[in-house]
Amino acid sequence: MNSLKNRILSLIILVLVSSCQTDESFVEVPDNAESTANLQSTLRAKLLELYGSLDALILPNSEEYTAIPNDPENEITQAKVTLGKLLFHETELGIAPKSDTGRRTYSCASCHHAKAGFQSGIKQGIGEGGWGFGLSGERRIPHPLYDTDSIDVQPIRTPTILNVAYQDVMLWNGQFGSSGENSGTEAQWTPGTPKEKNKLGFQGVETQAIAGLGVHRLSVSPDLIENGPYKNLFDEAFPNIAQENRYSLINAGLAIATFERTVLANEAPFQKFLKGDTNAMTDTELKGARLFFGKGQCYQCHSGPGLNGMDFHALGMNDLSGDIIGNVDEATAKGRGGFTKNPEDDYKFKTPTLYNLKDVAFLGHGGSFESVKEIIDYKNEAIPENNQVSTNQLDPLFVPLNLTEDEVASLTVFVEHSLYDGNLDRYVPDSTPMGTTCFPNADIRSLEDLDCN
Questions:
Q1: What is the per-residue pLDDT for 29?
Q2: Are residues 85 and 211 in the same domain?
Q3: Domain shared by 229 and 129, yes or no
Q4: What SS3 state is found at 176?
Q5: Do 233 and 100 lie in a common domain?
Q6: pLDDT tens digit string along 210-247?
Q7: Best CA proximity match to 205, nearest among 255, 157, 249
Q8: Using one digit for the tens of pLDDT, what is the confidence trace for 129-173?
Q9: How far apart, in Å, are the Cα atoms of 431 and each of 85, 91, 287?
Q10: How far apart are CA 89 and CA 433, in angstroms?
Q11: Which of 56, 220, 253, 420 could bridge 209 with an S-S bond, Cβ 3.0-4.6 Å?
Q12: pLDDT value for 405
């Protein structure tokens, strides 16, 4: 009898103990689960194997001017950066429009603003002739009073200025820059075109900034500077240039270029991980990073601190299409080949940075992808979408990666989150010397969208 009572009592105790346990006690741990510490250590080991040091991938602080790649002909200084930051966002420079309707309503930042990772936020960035902004540029459309031919747009998706310090030539076809990849292309620096600015002898960032002011109908005249609040800023930025040559469009471009070189995504979680922060990345992000630098082979094109590259690749992506302004000309469609005139360069485009893509709704040079996952799927399957690009023109690296759905998901999380600097507003001024406080546009619709009225 006592034996039966004891068995019943033991059963009751077992039930009570079991009922007090939390649901977590029943979570099964997969056999392939790895500890965070192991994920971190194996990632570091892989990076050391590839680069020899984690420093090879670290973006410097934006104030470490000597650590940021400089153009020897345009040393980065605090005074230049300060001036360039203001000029980059200054809508008062929009004084060379095709229509008075757009006068003083646009800036460099119209197509390169912080809310979209210093891209445009739309498939085709609009400078002069744009109307509206939305939350991150997504509502900018052609102004209803503009003819299509008068709107300032390009026949290719607007690239970012983020991490451009790690590029020696600029734009998708690399046409700006007098050295590096462009050595030997002098015959293509056509007089009377923006490419002629290469003859000034600067690197890509500087050349593009100078040429871009003219292309995008922005002007800096001596009268505007000498009789305005920017004079002292130019004096501080260019003290060694004779006063009669100091207040020029070229120097404005050089100041903008120094600012652009300091626009770095150095607060992204991956950057924090590289600097020793063991809490910067989740386990999924760490797995994605290992795939990026391993099975996914992403690092073969996207490398260095900017995770970009100076090589040009033909990946068979589509050009701009659908509801676009204007047409895509043959030279633009041919990418690098459209600039160099070398058939071997046809349909090759420069490798972009992978930082801050989460806010970008259009990816690829033609904006044919609407998410990071879409473009990873495309590269994983390696089936070209552009019928104009023949098989023998495709890059040898464009081959199936055989990533599983889970691996694609982890890789997507790494790119979207670990490479995302959420504090880019630090590169936007509170106001400019001319009183501008609303960025990046000053048309009536944008002022409403930005709550600047």
A1: 34
A2: yes
A3: yes
A4: strand
A5: yes
A6: 999 999 999 998 878 888 999 999 999 999 999 999 99
A7: 255
A8: 999 999 999 999 999 999 999 999 999 999 999 999 999 999 999
A9: 10, 11, 42
A10: 11
A11: 253
A12: 98
- 168 lies in which domain range? 78-265+424-449
Same domain, 383 and 305: yes
Secondary element (H or E) of residue 118 = none
- DSSP H or E run through 312: strand 312-313
Q: How many CB atoms lie within 10 A of CB 184?
A: 8
Q: What is the pLDDT of residues 6-29, one digit of tens each?
A: 444 444 433 333 443 433 333 333
Two structure tokens written together for 176? 């700006």
203, two tokens? 């690197």
pLDDT digits 0-9 by tens, 256-310: 999 999 999 999 999 999 999 999 999 999 999 999 999 999 999 999 999 999 9
- DSSP secondary structure string for all residues of 2-68: HHHHHHHHHHHHHHHHHHHS-GGGGPPPPTT---HHHHHHHHHHHHHHHHSSGGGGPPPPTT-TTTS
Q: Which two tokens stand for residue 346?
A: 């046809």
In whole angstroms, what is the distance from residue 251 CA to residue 272 CA?
Answer: 35
DSSP 254-305: HHHHHHHHH---TTSHHHHHHTT-TTSS-HHHHHHHHHHTTTT-GGGTSBTT
pLDDT confidence of residue 32: 56
